[in-house]
C-alpha cells in the first residue's frame, strides 16, 4: 500500500523563535495588523510503501524521532493518508 | 598523542585544524574520511577532532545528517572507551545531535551569521582541555556561526551545573557574564560544554583560528597545549 505522510515540525513553545519574530514585525510593515504571534517550523512530505497503515505510521514516527525532528528543540505531528493511485 | 580529524562533506576547518595540530603543535595528525568505519590505531590516550564547517550544507538541522555518517559509530565507541573527542563549531553541533553531548544549538537570536572575536570565561578546569588554564581565565577566540545558541532543558542545565560540565561562558574582556557579551543568545552564555565522563568536548569558538602569532591571537593554542600535556594522563584515568 502507498501512503503519503504530511509532517509538521515546530519549535517548542518555550523557545524563542527569532525567525517568527522577524516575520511578525514585518507583517506590520506591509500593513497587516492583528497578527499577535508567528512561529515558523518545517513541513516534510514523505511518500511511503508499507504493508499496512499501522506499519506506515510506525515508520513515520521512527523517522521523525531518529532524524527529521530533534525533540530537544522541536515537536512533530503528522497526518497519514493513502496515496491516490 | 595522536590526533585524527574527521572530514565530512562540507567540513571547511579541517585543514586549519590539521595545520595547527601538525605544524604548530608538532603532533601526529591524520585526516579521516567520514565514510571510514574504523578508528584504527587510535587508543584512549588519543584525540578525535570534529572540525567546523557546514556538513551536508546544514540541511535539516546543523549536524543532523553528519551524525549518521559511518565513522560516527566508531567515534561513539572511541568515546565510550575513554578516548578524547573534541568538536568545534559544526563539530559541536554534530556531537549534540549524536547525543554524545547534552543540549542543542539553535539559530542565533539575531538571525545572523556572526564572525568575530569574542571573550570566553573559563568555568571548569577539571578537564584535559582546560586543565592548564586558571579558573576564570578569559580567552579571546573567534566565533563564526549562524547556529550557536546553546539550549538545553532545565533538568539538563541543572545537571551541567552540578557536574561542572560547563567549559566556557561568553563574557566581557574582564570576565563579566553579561547579556551584551552573549553573541548568539546561548542559555547562560554557554559557549562550550563537556560530557559527564569529561572526555567529550564541544565549543562554538574556533581555537584553531587563534593559535599563531602571525594571526594576531594565540589564546586558542592554550587549549591544544593543555590537551597535549594532560590528555593522555586524563584519558588513561577515564579508561580504567
Can you walk through the features of this model?
Chain A starts with a strand and ends with a strand. Chain A has 85 residues and is α+β, with helices and mostly antiparallel strands. A three-stranded antiparallel β-sheet of chain A has the order 2-1-3, with helices on one face. The model of chain A has no long low-confidence stretch (mean pLDDT 95). Chain A has a single domain, classed as Phosphoribosylformylglycinamidine synthase subunit PurS (Mth169, Chain: A), CATH 3.30.1280. Chain A is built from two helices and three strands, in the order βαβαβ. Helix content of chain A is 33%, strand content 32%. Chain B is α/β, with parallel strands linked by helices. Chain B has a single domain, classed as Class I glutamine amidotransferase (GATase) domain (Rossmann fold, 3-Layer(aba) Sandwich), CATH 3.40.50.880. Chain B contains five helices and eleven strands. Chain B has a nine-stranded mixed β-sheet, with helices on both faces. Chain B has a two-stranded antiparallel sheet with strand order 5-8. Classes of the chains: A alpha+beta (85), B alpha/beta (240). Chains A and B meet through helix 1 of A and loops of B.
Amino acid at each position: 500500500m502507498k501512503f503519503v505522510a504530511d509532517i509538521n515540525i515546530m519549535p517548542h513553545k518555550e523557545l524563542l523563535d527569532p525567525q517568527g519574530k522577524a516575520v511578525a514585525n514585518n507583517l506590520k510593515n506591509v500593513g497587516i495588523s492583528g497578527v499577535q504571534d508567528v512561529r515558523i517550523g518545517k513541513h516534510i512530505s514523505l511518500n511511503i510503501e508499507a504493508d499496512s497503515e499501522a506499519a506506515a505510521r510506525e515508520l513515520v514516527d521512527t523517522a521523525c524521532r531518529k532524524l527529521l525532528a530533534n525533540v530537544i528543540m522541536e515537536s512533530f505531528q503528522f497526518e497519514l493518508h493513502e496515496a491516490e493511485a | 598523542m595522536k590526533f585524527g580529524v574527521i572530514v565530512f562533506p562540507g567540513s571547511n576547518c579541517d585543514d586549519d585544524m590539521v595545520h595547527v595540530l601538525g605544524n604548530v603543535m608538532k603532533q601526529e595528525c591524520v585526516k579521516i574520511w567520514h565514510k571510514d568505519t574504523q578508528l584504527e590505531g587510535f587508543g584512549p590516550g588519543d584525540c578525535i577532532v570534529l572540525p567546523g564547517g557546514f556538513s551536508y550544507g546544514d540541511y535539516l538541522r546543523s549536524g543532523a545528517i553528519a551524525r549518521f555518517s559511518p565513522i560516527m559509530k566508531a567515534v561513539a565507541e572511541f568515546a565510550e572507551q575513554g578516548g578524547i573527542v573534541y568538536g568545534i563549531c559544526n563539530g559541536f553541533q554534530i556531537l549534540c545531535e549524536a547525543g554524545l553531548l547534552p543540549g542543542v544549538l539553535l539559530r542565533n537570536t539575531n538571525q545572523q551569521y556572526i564572525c568575530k572575536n569574542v571573550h570566553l570565561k573559563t568555568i571548569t578546569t577539571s578537564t584535559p582541555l582546560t586543565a592548564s588554564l586558571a579558573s576564570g581565565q578569559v580567552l579571546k577566540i573567534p566565533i563564526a556561526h549562524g547556529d550557536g545558541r546553546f539550549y538545553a532543558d532545565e533538568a539538563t542545565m541543572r545537571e551541567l551545573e552540578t557536574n561542572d560540565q560547563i567549559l566556557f561562558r561568553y563574557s566581557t574582556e574582564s570576565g563579566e557574564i553579561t547579556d551584551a557579551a552573549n553573541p548568539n543568545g546561548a542559555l547562560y552564555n554557554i559557549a562550550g560544554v563537556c560530557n559527564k565522563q569529561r572526555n567529550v568536548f564541544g565549543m562554538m569558538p574556533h581555537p584553531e583560528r587563534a593559535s599563531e602569532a602571525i594571526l594576531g591571537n594565540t589564546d586558542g593554542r592554550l587549549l591544544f597545549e593543555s590537551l597535549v600535556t594532560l590528555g593522555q594522563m586524563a584519558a588513561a584515568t577515564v579508561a580504567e
